[in-house]
Amino acid sequence: MRTVRVDPLDPDPVQIAEAASIIRGGGLVAFPTETVYGLGGNALDPDAVRRIYAAKGRPSYNPLIVHCANTEAARSLALEWPREAETLATRYWPGPLTIVVRKSEKILPEVTAGLPTVALRVPVHPVAAALLAASAVPIAAPSANRFSELSPTTAEHVAKSLEKQIDLLLDGGPAHVGIESTVVDLSGPEPVLLRPGSIELAQLETAIGRPLQIPETYAETAPRPSPGMTHRHYSPTATLIVVPGDMSTFLAVSEPHRAKGRKIAALLRHLAAVPGIDRNVRMPSDADDYARKLYATLHELDDDGFDLILVEAPPKGGAWAAVSDRLARASTSA
Ligand code: TXA
Ligand code: MG
Fold first, then answer.
1. Is 11 in the pocket of ligand 1 (CB under 6 A)?
2. Residue 90 CB: number of other CB atoms within 10 A?
3. pLDDT number for residue 219
4. pLDDT tens digits, residue range 183-200?
5. Residue of the nearest CA to atom 3 in ligand 1?
6. pLDDT tens digit string along 151-184?
7. In the predicted model, what is the mean pLDDT of residues 305-312?
8. Which atom of ligand 1 is nearest to the CA of 35?
9. Based on the number of CB atoms within 10 Å of its own CB, is 155 exposed (0-12), middle (13-18) or buried (19 or more)?
10. d(CA 101, CA 80)
11. What is the pLDDT of residue 332?
12. CA distance 31 to 11
């Protein structure tokens, strides 16, 4: 794999043209988006799509998100484009929102795992936008990590996980949002929030003027309308436990692990440092800042060989819904 540094704000057209020609030739390019890094291939090329699944080690029942240069390009891949899709696209595209609609025949069954629907997203990151424009094809791109591993928010994270499977890695620095896009399903009679993200439930409900359905828990098992709902997805190698309570709970949870000599870290927002463990990490008290830092922190703790990560439970709902969801998935007890 070759890695090329690109200016995240003003990517060099020559570098982008090279990446685009790899996409058009059926190759795989990892690239930054505002959420996490994507592993991209031509969504209209069945061999490229198969290479994406193989590279990730991803089960073929998990459909891919198709990235488009603009709303018009996205609309052309939908069989039906509901009024609410237009409303959300106008409001949030380009940006960290994925919209699921009924698919047109142009979308191959390989991309959607045989589902009659397709997930569409128009990213705002200048590198992703430039790559889509130069490629002139929609780009299927899951997060650029092996299946069930943590999503990558830097090029280093991508290289660590997928070094051999990618033709080119565009390094545009750290992803700004830091967690995956909000996914809304508009293919049925009721809108459904399939995956919480930085665009919040309340914002979406205000935009479309009616409530969204919410699956009982995003982390439930089959049948899965959404691969992000797979149990133990987005997981670090270390065991992660969300600790609901105060310092005494932290001590009670950590003590048996300490006794076994485990290497323990704590991610804290308000609590004081936990005594007797190996590392206390201070996390932001703002939800968006926390999300931006979350995966990078977990990647770092994995690299440093931690066995156990204890996390001060975040507040419920609202701006914290996406963070809570990713922590629940990353934890063994979720
Ligand atoms: O932020 C993101 O969305 C990143 C960047 C690279 O754009 N991509 C990403 O892709 O997270 P991936 O493949 O790791 O996650 C796939 C998500 C699933 O969780 C699911 O919600 C949705 O895409 N999905 C794809 N096709 C779907 C479909 N036909 N029906 C329902 N959900 C679908
Ligand atoms: Mg993923």
1. no
2. 10
3. 41
4. 999 999 999 999 999 999
5. 181
6. 999 999 999 999 889 999 999 999 999 999 999 9
7. 97
8. 1
9. buried
10. 7
11. 62
12. 12
Q: Is 68 in the pocket of ligand 1 (CB under 6 A)?
A: no
Which residue in 70, 71, 99 sits closest to 181, CA to CA?
99
CB atoms < 10 A from the CB of 203, how many? 14
* 169 pocket-lining for ligand 1 (C-beta < 6 Å): no
CA distances from 88 to 122, 174, 178, 218 (A): 12, 26, 21, 21
Both tokens assigned to 39: 């592993």
CA terminus-to-terminus distance, the chain = 35
Rg (C-alpha) for the chain, rounded Å, is 20
Cβ of 98 below 6 Å from ligand 1 = yes
Please report which ligand is nearest the Cα atom of 226.
1
- Starting at the edge strand found earlier in the chain, the sheet holding 192-195 runs 2-5, 168-171, 29-31, 38-42, 139-140, 65-67, 117-121, 97-102, 182-185, 192-195
Q: What is the pLDDT of residues 21-50, one digit of tens each?
A: 999 999 999 999 999 999 999 999 999 999
**Angle at which helices 321-330 and 287-303 cross, to 10°:** 20
50 φ/ψ angles, rounded to the nearest 5 degrees: -65, -35
Q: What is the chain's mean pLDDT, rounded?
A: 93
Determine which of 184-198, 205-219, 264-278 has the lowest per-residue pLDDT on average: 205-219
DSSP, res 123: -
**From the CB of 227, is ligand 1 less than 6 Å away?**
yes
Whether the Cβ atoms of residue 163 and residue 247 lie closer than 8 Å to each other: no
**This prediction's pTM:** 0.94
More confident residue, 160 or 334: 160
